[in-house]
Every structure is written in structure tokens, then in C-alpha cells.
Automatic annotation (TrEMBL):
Lineage: Bacteria, Bacillati, Cyanobacteriota, Cyanophyceae, Pleurocapsales
Coiled coil region boundaries: none
PANTHER family, alphabetized: PROTEIN CONSERVED IN THE GREEN LINEAGE AND DIATOMS 27, CHLOROPLASTIC, PTHR34214
Keyword line: Membrane, Transmembrane, Transmembrane helix
Pfam families for this protein: CGLD27-like (PF06799)
InterPro entries to which the protein is assigned, alphabetical: CGLD27-like
Signal peptide region: none
Protein name listed in UniProt: DUF1230 domain-containing protein
Organism: Hydrococcus rivularis NIES-593
Residues annotated as transmembrane: 44-64, 70-93, 148-165
Amino acid sequence: MKDSSVQSCPVPDEQQPLKEYEQLKDSWFFRWATLESLPYWRKFAWVWLWGWIVVGPIAAASFPPQKHPFLFTLSGALGTSLLVALVLLRLYLGWYYIRDRLKSEKVFYEESGWYDGQIWQKPPEAIARDRLIVSYQIEPIMQRLRRTALILGILVGSGCLIWLSL
């Protein structure tokens, strides 16, 4: 049996905030934010390690590892942290977009193209349902991503302080 708010909804299926949320949480990349603690941190560790493939040669060209091993390691670590920060930013922006779509009382959608956008007022049941999803499902993810960004910022900041002290 379908929800009455969904039956009267003129928003195309793929643009409904609830469907967008389900697609996001099931997607390969955005699902990272929903993983248990160890697999979550393992994903970021893999990004950081694979980032060395890109950043390592640049760091080696700037600071030859034989002459300046500490500067090479520090510059490479800071460079790979930038890649981790970009991945983290992409995760955050994706979840932020869905959170805003679910929290909003009105939904913007396109009927057949960019030129004919419409706005749909959600019924009270849909607003309540969507806000519960935001409170209990998405906000913990957003907090986790903010904490991760804070930890990354502290690590990068301490790396920069070490760099300046050399």
C-alpha cells in the first residue's frame, strides 16, 4: 500500500527527496559515511595511501627522500591529506544536499527539463517523516563527517606547525 503523500506527489520519482536519500545511502561512495567505525576509517586510510601515488613523486621532486626524508614525508603527508579533504568535502556536500531537500517544506523539481521547474509543497505527514529521517539518520552522519574534518584539520594544522618550526 502506497503512502497517500507519495500518491499525490507530482515530483518525478527520481527527484523525490526520500528516493534521493535512499539512492544516496545505497551508493558505493556515499555509503562510506554510514559504515561502522573501523571500515569508515579504513576507507580514508586507503584514500590517503593511494594519494601517495600522486603526491609522492611531487614530494620527491621537491625534497629528495635521500637528502630530506623528514621534509619529504611531511610534504607528502600534507599533500595526501588534501586529497582526503576533497573526498571528505564531496561526502559532506552530498549528504548536506539531501538533508536540505528532506528538511525543506517545499521541493523544487523539474518536470521535463531545466526550463520548467516547479515547486511542490509537502503535506504535513511527509514533512514529519522527512524530518525524522534527518534527525535520526542524516544528522549523525553529518556530525561524523564534521568530526572527521576536525580531526583532519588538527592533523594538517599540526603538520603545518611542524613545517614552520623547521
